[in-house]
Fold each of these.
Amino acid sequence: MADIHHAIIQCMSTTISELKRANTSLDLDDFNVDNAYFRSFDMVVRRQLDSVWHKVGPRTKQLVNDLGTLRRLLYYLLTYDPLHFHAYLETLIAANTVNPAGNAKQHQSPWLLTDAAHIIFQVAKRRCYTMSKVQLPEVVDVDDEDAWAALDEMEAGGPAAHNPKSAKA
């Protein structure tokens, strides 16, 4: 779980730096990973870009949406079980590969192409599908002389009639 968390943080920092690089004219100094943990971070980013939202390109809009997605991933990592978290990641991949018409999507999320995203997907899959060897308890076969004696008495064959150890003696 810690590997996924660190990879999500790395994706967030990469996305924030891309957002700052794409919008050099805006004051985006408050955008950092520490602030991204808070729910209000999405609204702060949108308010900051609200005055120029109609001027920014689709790449910037995609980066803002990606920040929201990554923040939700942090939340889902803690609240979802491994199977649901992996299923959510699979829907993210499916949503970012084709558009509703079935064609390849033009503006894919850049964070999905990073090594950190690969770590997220691999570790999430490993959390679901790792096979472990189940150890069965050993069956101990012990000759119980008292059990043989009780069986002999029940059959009225006398003591030690069927006991292989006492027959040798």
Note: The helical segments are 2-22, 33-36, 41-50, 58-79, 82-97, 115-129, 145-155, 164-168.
Amino acid sequence: VNRQDRLCEARQQAEEDELQKQQGCKDEEEAAQLEERKKNKNKPKAGDYCELHYFTNKGLDNARVSMSITEPDVLVILPAADGIHSWVPAAAVKDLKAAPVVKDENLIWEDFNEAAPLSCYLMSYIECIYSDNTTVQG
């Protein structure tokens, strides 16, 4: 094998290494984007609708209670009418004190006055985050 053949082989090897490196970078970037999408899949997006009830004091309290159940497989013990206790998924247990979601058209003025400023703040906050990656101080 002469010198020219070795140079040609070395050049081909270098090109293959570069292609593998580029493919590795591309794979890492795709994995990072997929992970980011998984983390952000529940974030509100432009055009998403949310009932104003969730911005009232009652709605915020209900959300705080529901957020306390972080694991989907968490079990709680409940007594039955016959006195026997049983384990049930925490997600299936409904808080009887929790207020039901009220449709926007059925909100009383006091609830609307609580919800409107909070919903406006959230919309501006989300717009700031998505427009230039800065956060609103407040």
Note: Residues 15 and 21 are 10 Å apart (CA to CA).
